[in-house]
Write a structure and sequence with these properties.
Elements (H helix, E strand, L loop, with lengths): L1 H4 L2 H5 L6 E2 L2 E8 L11 H17 L7 E2 L4 E14 L2 E13 L6 E9 L4 E2 L16 H19 L7 H17 L15 H9 L4 H14 L7 H21 L4 H18 L4 H14 L4 H4 L5
Parallel strand pairs: 2-4
Antiparallel strand pairs: 1-3, 4-5, 5-6, 5-7
Helix pairs in contact: 4-5, 5-6, 7-8, 8-9, 8-10
Length: about 300
């Protein structure tokens, strides 16, 4: 496992090393949008937050051994918008995944994704029961989906398409959910094409494979070596943006690519702003085409 091998020398010299589960997921439960009468039971929401945290952080999601220092840092913010019955909620959620950059104190965001249909029901008497090939309930299944997506993008950043096994598991979770759930988050028919189905469709689509290849090169050979070779890092950044442009022409509006720019826009700007005039101009042309909503920010590359 390349992810562990990269840190093995550090880990072998770390006193009191403890092997642990894979995720270090910080869960936030936001009830501000609920009607006052729907959020009076504070103990209920504290318990809901605790069981989500327990499920994400204390379950083993892979067969690999992770040291405590290797846990994948992520945040899951669940916004509860409406309660239509006791323990039944409409909401949305935002997932953010980060990983350290070698040789720096900087944490790079590898995924930023908004789930607009994070709807579920839960009662304190309801156990979290999960089996990979069996749908139990919306909340458990959604959390298992995101646990595998977190592993997929993290492993992809350390080795070429290293997260493929977790992509397949997440895709299987979607297939199981589609058979029984009426939540549009799992549906290929969602008109926005920005839901769970399309996120995992993009990750396994062969048209998008060059992005996953470039995602590894950008992180492992570019960012991780930036302190020693910023020229190379800028080259890999331009290479990745060029690949994304080619994919966008074939698959416009791909949610995975939108999520990439949500996570990386400031980082991409900071990498390229010290480049040559030609590099900065090329980066601006690509970024303003691929991420037009932030064109004015990217215009700093032309100064």
């Amino acid at each position: 496992m390349i992810r562990i091998a990269l840190l093995i020398s550090l880990l072998l010299n770390t006193p009191g090393l403890v092997w642990a589960q894979e995720l270090n997921c910080t869960v936030t439960l936001n009830t501000e949008q609920l009607a006052a009468a729907q959020k009076t039971d504070l103990a209920y929401f504290d318990q809901l937050k605790a069981v989500i945290s327990e499920f994400m952080n204390n379950r083993r999601w892979s067969t690999d051994q992770f040291a405590s220092a290797e846990k994948i840092n992520c945040t899951l913010t669940v916004n509860l918008i409406q309660s239509t019955a006791v323990g039944v909620f409409r909401g949305n959620a935002q997932l953010s995944v980060t990983r350290p950059v070698f040789g720096a104190s900087y944490q790079t965001t590898t995924l930023s994704f908004v789930d607009r249909n994070f709807d579920f029901s839960w009662l304190p008497s309801q156990p979290f029961f999960y089996r990979e090939n069996q749908f139990s309930d919306e909340l458990t299944h959604a959390l298992a989906f995101y646990a595998n997506v977190i592993l997929a993008v993290d492993y992809d950043s350390f080795s070429r398409q290293g997260g493929s096994v977790y992509v397949q598991r997440a895709f299987q979770i979607v297939n199981v959910a589609q058979a029984v759930s009426d939540n549009s988050a799992w549906s290929a028919q969602d008109n926005s094409r920005r839901n769970r189905y399309w996120l995992i469709e993009n990750l396994q689509n062969q048209q998008v494979a060059p992005f996953r290849e470039g995602f590894y090169t950008y992180h492992r050979l570019g960012l991780d070596a930036f302190a020693n070779n910023p020229v190379q890092a800028r080259k890999y950044t331009i290479d990745l943006l060029t690949s994304i442009r080619q994919i966008t022409l074939q698959k416009p509006g791909a949610v995975l690519l939108n999520a990439f720019f949500d996570a990386k826009s400031d980082e991409l700007l900071n990498i390229m702003i010290e480049g040559t005039r030609d590099e900065r101009k090329r980066a601006f042309d690509l970024l303003s085409f691929l991420d037009p909503g932030k064109t004015e920010n990217y215009r700093r590359l032309l100064n």
